[in-house]
Task: structure prediction
Amino acid sequence: MTILNLLRIFIRFFNYFCMGYTLVLGVIYLVQLITALIKVRKQDRGKISEDYMRYAQSPNLLPISLIVPAHNEQENIVQNVKDLLKLEYPEFEVIVVNDGSTDLTHTKIIEAFDLYPIEGAVKIKIPTKEIHNVYYNTDYPNLYYIDKENGGKSDSLNAGINQSQYPLFACLDADSRIERNALLILGEEFIKDTTTVVAGGFVRIANGSVIEQGEWKRFEVPPKMIERFQIVEYFRSFLAGRLSWGKALLIVSGAFGVFNKQVVIDAGGYKTDTIGEDMEIVVRIHRFMRKNKRKYNVKFCPEAICWTQGPMSFSDLKVQRRRWQIGLFDTLKAHFIMTFNPRFRTVGLLSIPYSWMFEFFGTAVETLGYFIIPFSLIMGELNMYFFIIYFLLAVMLGIMLSIGGIILEQNTRKGCMSSQQAMRLSLYAILENFGYRQAITLFRFGGLMRYRKYKRSWGVIKRKEFNVMSERKST
Amino acid sequence: MAEFSYEILAAALIIFFLLMLSAEYLWLYLLSKRNEESDMQKYEIYSKIHSMIEAFLYSPTETSRETELSSLFDYIGDDAAKKDEAAVQFIQLMKRADDIPAEKLKLLGKLYEMLDPVEFYSKQLAKGNLYKKSYAVRRLADFNASEKIPDIKNLLSDRHNNVVYNAAMALSELGDEDAVVFFAQKCESNRYYSHRILLELLQAYTGDRIGLTKRLYNECNDYIKATCIKAYTHDCIEELSEIYADGVSAKDNNLKIACVKALAQLGKPEYEQKMIIALNDKNWIVRLAAVSGLERIHSQTSLEALVKATQDDEWWVRNAAAKAIVNIDFQLIYVEKVLSGYDKYAADAVKSALYKQINMNGGKLR
Result:
């Protein structure tokens, strides 16, 4: 048997495999979309009798510590803290953790809030890098600022947990904005169900939207194509992807999630040697709770909204997606024991195997497909007619899923987008299949290929001040 | 033949997908259009009803008032959404009834009679879906529809938890003691409702809270007893102090914690000794609650006990005691005593509390 024959057999096998893979993935995505739609409709009908605003002044809401890790966030940090101090919630504290910034983050925050160092007893529940000082000002009694040695986002979150005095904590990104009622919505989840240990919000792309003084004013379709693609992508992945997993959800976005502090401490706090800390902590909580046979629940609330800036260039997008893929691999590797392990029920039998097969290996399969399928066409191993049909069906399925994401958005957040804007975005649900999706897959695959080099690197993504973004629109 | 069937299959699949896509597009278009319109419609209903009620209340003559009122009800007609909006606006107005002059209140009475919200929500209660039923019971409670208590009580045995919860909340707002006790006893075995939901229910209760607490204390298990005491801790009901004092020696930790906290909130000197005993409890949450009680009593004996508490093994107790001392020791005698003492952790805790009390820019104690 010649090498050429072997190659032909491989290509033929790979083509069949790809077809089966696309079919299974398509079915899974459709099931996810339908499940999410059913859930959203049910939630929508329930809204009439569930008014979270009645908790706005309720002492029954569990107090929350908002932890904001900041590393070189001089553009946004001051405004973000000011906005956080204005949130609607009966009792909360804001803990800003400066993770060894090399820019003006430290100076800006000290000056803006006139903070002074305090010597204080901090209960060390999770070991962290050295804390230089804790700052405070009696004029802002619910604001603490920790200046510490650089140790990464996880280390900053751990330092924030040590400083926090409340039973719940929320991890927030310094470059994101949460809506004023978002905490109330997530806080309510901990009242309705005491077994809730994690509640995640819906992260939306802020690019283009008018945000003034930290408050979202109105939606505008952003000017760049890359930003529009991300909006459609976020609808699809957050609304269809996350809603459908229910309590077997493996990730709560690092930009906005509320956690039961004691559970996180019991599980050992955030793991510091990974860049995918948001997924890792949720998976570890699943593992810890199942292992200790404790009842728990993980929630995703599409109405609790956090606005974040999506990358504005392909190079930034590449950095972001590389980081996500490395974080995914780190987590799956660290919790490999859970894979197909019935002890961990849905998480072990469905969520984690799904992540391995379609999120991790899927990237490699798709990337290989981009090269092997054209090659097999050249070699005559694939029928052109069959290929066109297969390609058309795959693209149409992709479009259906993306439009499904926009439909979900229209069901959860009524009136955010006009019908014209929704239809305009739906155009990008078509266009994203011709270049954008492929680029994302290649970025993710690239991340895996260079895992050793980038496994500790967050990379730098250019950000703009939120006010600048809104001014551009206002003018 | 085989290839032919593949072609048919492919064509069928493509047509099917295209149809699905078109349907999806149509759905998106209609949904987004409907959302846009319903937003505008909601706003229009709100502003129209608002201005019509205002016009009715502020019309100068009887005739013009009649005209305004009839045009309001012509506008509302049989539309449930409009009627609900009018009822909601009526509730909002009644919430600030104290600021409304008597003659306007009389007019509101007339509006209420014509609107007849109790009848409207009763109908929804009878034939609405589970969410509408849940909504209707809460609105009936807002309108103090005590005559509907028997109907609402029937919902306590509904199979949907959402309906049961809202019915219980409505009955609590209407001050029905039996219903609250019934629901609380249901919660003894059914942990579906979190203790915070139960707290919310008890706090919404408008009847005799002392009577309810005594009844729950006698008829329910320790979990419900503790929840009830927690619910009314901030009300500082002195008549319940005996129950609290009794609960301090309970075996159940939750009940003990709730009672110590409630006694602490009362801050009565006659319970100082109980607080000092609680300060030696093996459960640190009990000790923490005792610290806040001693802070409220702030006698010489309390201060000395608090100084001792700064040496507690538990970080939270140490720091709470330090904060209490800094708050009440105006002459800083005890603060200095701890700072110059041998216990570094106690000194650290006091130092930390001091920093949070002193505005370093002013350099003075607040």
Notes: Chain A touches chain B through 48 residues (CB under 8 Å). Residues 470-475 of chain A have pLDDT under 50 and may be disordered. The two ends of chain A are 70 Å apart (CA to CA).
